[in-house]
Amino acid sequence: MAWIRNFLRDEEGVTAVEYAVMLALIILVCVGSVGVVGMNTRELMDPGGRLTTALGSGS
Question: Taking a C-beta distance cutoff of 8 angstroms, is the pair 53, 44 a contact?
């Protein structure tokens, strides 16, 4: 019974788990933002491969 109590009170691995969760969240934010920027960039291009202007005329 004492071994179980000691195991539950041991906090050595907690820091590694916190860093792993933080790293996973940072990766998710980075991947998501790259995806959004990619979609927005694709929307600026018309089918002919030319950039559209702010007014929408593709000249």
Answer: no
